[in-house]
Amino acid sequence: SMTGAAPEPALPSSCVPRPLMPHGSLCVYGFQCASSFCCPRLRVCLRSSSAGLSSADLGVSPGLQETILDIVFRDGATCRNPWGDRQACMQTSAGQPLRQWDQSRCGCKAEYMTRYQAGTWVTLNAGVTCGGDGGGVGSGAPGETTTEAASGG
Asked: What is the pTM (predicted TM-score) of this model?
């Protein structure tokens, strides 16, 4: 029957790390986290939706610490307003995006959006590889790019 919609292309950054990532790991979707919860504002795996996060919890490569602290903790966090458009920005308790998922509607910083589209936000975590991304972006480059300042504001 032709009633179903065509299969959706894989969402950006939708790879599944093995093992699933612990508290303090940069994430896009809850299904990437051991807890199934990726904070919609910080874009970091938390033990639970009420858990706090300190800078020491972040598991990013040492050279990226400052950059990531800036994105996650300053100026309204990674995505300033995920509650303004819940259908586009929030996820189910199982860590699955809702049907109208659209990170561009959540007040996210340009540095995050660039890495979200390229599939390189999750791989900023030290020692995390993330295979099986249906998008096949294949960006094997390390996250140490210096071009992000050019994204304007």
From this structure: 0.79
